């Protein structure tokens, strides 16, 4: 089968499509034939070496497809089952692969392979952010950066379903309209407006109890200045670059603030935690409370173009690779 591999870190050009031998699954494993593969910003961190992996390596954490072989001792899955995953292990950029059975979620017929491949990592991220890192309650107002991105569009819908008011940052009028169509109550164009000042205006000077920031370096100051006293900054990504040399004294100076840097992999480290998270996500999507926007599709062989477009912020919603 064909799979994307990297032998060195760097730009999109380091990814190559190679022939890979795929054998039979071992004990506790299944073999999955992919129907669609998810593209996520974390994939670029792995490719560039920001998040280090042993080389050579595959890339990708998310895909959906059909079980076509089952290893010894697997009782939860059988051949023909529709499955998806979004928390690795690394290597989803492939036509198929061997997977630990416990890291797969069964898909109902109501959720297509393309939808599943576009939603698992992003949707599971939203689930832990809104339901565990900070448990958003009805009537609260939250700030979510990059509201028109793949994570942002899911987060806006989920937060609205919880009864929250959502303020989202965007980079264009087109993205503002997209975010509002997906449940964002107030949009702030960070290219033209002062984010923190607008948040204060919207909240009557109070600020928000939580800011969800997957952008990183470029939004750190605005995030801190948007929080009310004892508010929580959830820094869960580095789209603009990592935050370096953070002065913890800022947290006291700006109102005894809290800062956390969570990751999905910690929240779904056990198979039980993963099942609970994935089940909630799949139920929300199957019920129609959350719609997944698959706005870009690329052939697996065109993954370099997909990465370039993602890093240039040319994409909206979710992007998938077709094997």
UniProtKB/TrEMBL annotation:
<dbReference type="InterPro" id="IPR013154">
    <property type="entry name" value="ADH-like_N"/>
</dbReference>
<keyword id="KW-0521">NADP</keyword>
<dbReference type="InterPro" id="IPR047618">
    <property type="entry name" value="QOR-like"/>
</dbReference>
<dbReference type="GO" id="GO:0035925">
    <property type="term" value="F:mRNA 3'-UTR AU-rich region binding"/>
</dbReference>
<protein>
    <submittedName>
        <fullName>Quinone oxidoreductase</fullName>
    </submittedName>
</protein>
<dbReference type="InterPro" id="IPR002364">
    <property type="entry name" value="Quin_OxRdtase/zeta-crystal_CS"/>
</dbReference>
<dbReference type="Pfam" id="PF08240">
    <property type="entry name" value="ADH_N"/>
</dbReference>
<dbReference type="InterPro" id="IPR013149">
    <property type="entry name" value="ADH-like_C"/>
</dbReference>
<feature type="domain" description="Enoyl reductase (ER)">
    <location>
        <begin position="10"/>
        <end position="321"/>
    </location>
</feature>
<dbReference type="GO" id="GO:0005829">
    <property type="term" value="C:cytosol"/>
</dbReference>
<dbReference type="Pfam" id="PF00107">
    <property type="entry name" value="ADH_zinc_N"/>
</dbReference>
<dbReference type="InterPro" id="IPR011032">
    <property type="entry name" value="GroES-like_sf"/>
</dbReference>
<dbReference type="GO" id="GO:0003960">
    <property type="term" value="F:quinone reductase (NADPH) activity"/>
</dbReference>
<dbReference type="GO" id="GO:0070402">
    <property type="term" value="F:NADPH binding"/>
</dbReference>
<dbReference type="GO" id="GO:0008270">
    <property type="term" value="F:zinc ion binding"/>
</dbReference>
<keyword id="KW-0560">Oxidoreductase</keyword>
<dbReference type="InterPro" id="IPR036291">
    <property type="entry name" value="NAD(P)-bd_dom_sf"/>
</dbReference>
<dbReference type="InterPro" id="IPR020843">
    <property type="entry name" value="ER"/>
</dbReference>
């Amino acid at each position: 089968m064909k799979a994307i591999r990297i032998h060195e870190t760097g730009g999109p050009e380091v990814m190559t499509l190679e022939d890979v031998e795929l054998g039979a699954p071992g004990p506790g494993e299944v073999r999955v034939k992919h129907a669609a593969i998810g593209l996520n910003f974390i994939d670029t961190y792995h490719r560039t070496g920001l998040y280090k992996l042993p080389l050579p390596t595959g890339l990708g954490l998310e895909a959906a497809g059909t079980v076509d072989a089952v290893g010894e001792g697997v009782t939860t899955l059988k051949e023909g089952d529709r499955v998806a995953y979004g928390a690795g292990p690394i290597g989803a950029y492939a036509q198929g692969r061997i997977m630990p059975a416990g890291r797969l979620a069964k898909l109902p017929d109501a959720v297509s392979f393309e939808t599943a491949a576009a939603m698992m990592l992003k949707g599971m991220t939203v689930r832990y952010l809104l339901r565990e890192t900070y448990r958003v309650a009805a009537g609260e107002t939250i700030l979510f950066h990059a509201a028109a991105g793949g994570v942002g569009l899911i987060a806006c819908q989920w937060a609205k379903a919880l009864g929250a008011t959502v303020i989202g940052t965007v980079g264009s009028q087109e993205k503002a309209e997209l975010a509002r169509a997906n449940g964002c109550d107030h949009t702030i164009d960070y290219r033209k407006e002062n984010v923190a000042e607008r948040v204060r205006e919207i909240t009557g000077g109070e600020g928000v109890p939580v800011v969800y920031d997957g952008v990183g370096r470029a939004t750190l100051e605005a995030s801190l200045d948007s929080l009310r006293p004892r508010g929580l900054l959830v820094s869960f990504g580095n789209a603009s670059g990592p935050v370096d040399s953070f002065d913890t004294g800022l947290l006291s100076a700006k109102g005894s603030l809290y800062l956390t840097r969570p990751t999905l992999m910690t929240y779904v480290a056990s198979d039980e935690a993963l099942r609970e998270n994935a089940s909630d996500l799949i139920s929300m999507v199957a019920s129609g409370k959350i719609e997944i926007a698959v706005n870009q599709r690329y052939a697996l062989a065109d993954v370099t173009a997909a990465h370039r477009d993602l890093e240039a912020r040319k994409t909206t919603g979710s992007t998938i690779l077709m094997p």
